[in-house]
Amino acid sequence: MKIGPTIVFILLFSTSIYASVGVATQKDNVDVVVGNTGVFQYEIQTIGMNTPQSCIFSFQEKPTLDISFDSNPIIVPPKSRTQVFGKVKIPQNAQIGSYTFNFCVLCTSLSDKDSQASSLSQNICNIPLKINILEKKQEEIPQKIKQERKIPNSLLFIAVVVVLIVIFLLIKEFKNKNLYR
Predict the structure, then answer these.
(1) d(C-alpha 85, C-alpha 88), whole Å
(2) Dihedral pair phi/psi, residue 28, rounded to 5°
(3) HSE (CB half, 13 Å, CA atoms) of 161?
(4) pLDDT digits (tens, 9 = 90+) for 77-133
């Protein structure tokens, strides 16, 4: 039995057995109102990796919305969790509804020293990005205008008191003039 070559084979390829890259979502859906920009977040995990990874994002099909990642590619340190942020811009004429776009993350080792690690790359696909496009509420704008035009109660009270004082002084002046004639 040749146990020696088997052990050497296992030791050489042991990093690829336990080392992998993972992608986790932070929130299920991104809710964005028409005409606004929404932010989404993912996490790339390289817990079992001994080398830094260069990760590139790509959509499986071209999205119909303006979607971008803040960094592409992104360098992920070994044995870490790195937050990745992106933005989705919703135009004014977008259709209200829910949309799902799937993307891939291709991570390649940046190690030049170890030829085994430098050839290791992982492609994770079918990662969903779920976007809910919401309608702009028409009621918010008129309420804001009403609040801006509303005169404070204290100012109204002061105005009424001033008017009453002026009326009282005019009446008193009028009576004084009538008495002296």
Answers:
(1) 10
(2) -65, -50
(3) 6
(4) 999 998 999 999 999 999 999 999 999 999 888 875 554 544 567 888 898 999 999
Is residue 141 predicted with pLDDT exceeding 80?
no
Q: Which two tokens stand for residue 149?
A: 């035009």
Strands of the sheet containing 53-59, edge to edge, are: 29-33, 121-134, 97-109, 53-59, 74-76
**Roughly how many angstroms between the first and final C-alpha of the chain, as a whole number?**
139
At 119, list the tokens: 């050839």
Per the model's pLDDT, the better-predicted residue between 149 and 22 turns out to be: 22
Query: Quick one: residue 126, left, alpha or beta (phi over 0 = left, psi -120 to 50 = alpha)?
Result: left
Two tokens, residue 107? 């991570």
Backbone angles phi, psi at 154, to 5 degrees: -65, -35
Q: Residue 22, Cβ neighbours under 10 Å: how many?
A: 15
At 7, the pLDDT band (50, 70, 90 cuts) reads very low
